[in-house]
From TrEMBL:
GO terms for biological process: CAAX-box protein processing. Pfam families: Rce1-like. The chain crosses the membrane at residues 12-31, 52-72, 92-118, 138-157, 169-200, 221-241, 247-265, 272-291. It is found in: Endoplasmic reticulum membrane. Keywords: Endoplasmic reticulum, Hydrolase, Membrane, Protease, Transmembrane, Transmembrane helix. GO terms for cellular component: endoplasmic reticulum membrane. One of its GO terms (molecular function) is metalloendopeptidase activity. This is intramembrane prenyl-peptidase Rce1. Belongs to the peptidase U48 family.
Length: 314
């Protein structure tokens, strides 16, 4: 049943606040060049570090701005953080269950990666005369090198740390409580909130446009695909946040999806990949509500203090 929450702020005020936070998140990225008149960064690393700082500032501004609007009943640290879903309780449930649920959508991708890895190992063992201690050492050193390469890659920090953390803080932790307090129905919020999330990604249009040799058609197709993907993921992330009342749930799902990319639906001469994808999606839909039951992530679901609405969603 679609539940409607009690309104503490007007719907217009809640929507306007979300629009302002969206504009702030995107606009502040260009502040160093357009407002502060700083010279262009000397390298990609400096460019991304500058953007990391801007995204962090925008997130802090959104947290303060939304706190001034939300009817927070107690200014105790735990209570204020709880409004944004930043909680230490039920952490392992908020990390493990949504990660498992999200991974089901990538069953085809993981089967394909496993098959490719198995073929690579088989080839290496055949070349080295079978499984040996030296072969195992090579594999372990290769994995270690890949981990260090990711940890030192500035793009990895953007994709797996800064972007997921700041986006979930602004577009889930700040906006969803505001929309709930505006009296919007929960299902409406799940479909509405990703609109702001997807619009924030329109700032990539000019970058993609120049990267595609100024082809408007190609740039529009790429941006359109990205917007569609961000809308679908935004629905899922908003669902997780409201159902669990825990910011860790959509955050971990966001990091995992950024790492995996688009799900693999089929692969040539590998029918098992398609079978795994279909089976994973069936399992995902079957477990979507049972594995996100609010009582799994909260000690109580009545007298809800965190404004996420899980106390009224059956």
């Amino acid at each position: 049943m679609e539940q409607e929450t009690e309104a503490y702020v007007s719907k217009a005020a809640a929507l306007m606040a979300c629009v302002l936070m969206t504009l702030s998140y995107v606009g502040i990225l260009y502040a160093p060049t357009l407002i502060l008149r700083l010279p262009p960064p000397a390298s990609l690393k400096h460019y991304l570090i500058r953007r990391f700082i801007c995204a962090a500032i925008s997130s802090i501004i959104s947290l303060i701005f939304s706190a001034l609007i939300l009817p927070i009943r107690s200014w105790e640290t735990s209570n204020v953080l709880g409004v944004y879903g930043i909680r230490a309780d039920h952490m392992w449930q908020a990390a493990v269950f949504p990660l498992f649920l999200t991974s089901l959508m990538y069953a085809g991708s993981m089967v394909l990666k496993s098959l490719l890895l198995l073929n690579s190992w088989t080839t290496d063992m055949n070349n080295s005369g079978g499984l040996s201690l030296g072969c195992i050492k090579i594999v372990l050193w290769s994995l270690r090198a890949q981990m260090f390469a990711v940890a030192s890659n500035i793009l990895a920090w953007r994709n797996f740390v800064v972007a997921p953390l700041t986006e979930e803080l602004v577009f889930r932790a700040c906006m969803i409580p505001l929309l709930l307090c505006g009296g919007f129905k929960i299902n409406t919020i799940i479909f509405l909130c990703p609109v702001f999330f997807s619009l924030a990604h329109l700032n990539h249009l000019m970058e993609i446009y120049s990267a595609q040799n100024f082809s408007l058609l190609k740039a529009s197709m790429i941006v359109g695909l990205q917007l569609g993907y961000t809308v679908v993921f935004g629905w899922y992330a908003s669902f997780l946040f409201i159902r669990t009342g825990h910011l860790a749930a959509p955050l971990i799902a966001h990091i995992f999806c950024n790492y995996m990319g688009l799900p693999v639906v089929f692969a040539r001469n590998r029918g098992l990949v398609s079978v795994a994808f279909v089976a994973g999606m069936v399992a995902f839909l079957w477990l979507l509500f049972p594995i996100t039951r609010p009582d799994l992530y909260n000690d109580r679901t009545n007298n809800c203090r965190c404004l996420h609405g899980y106390c009224s969603w059956n």
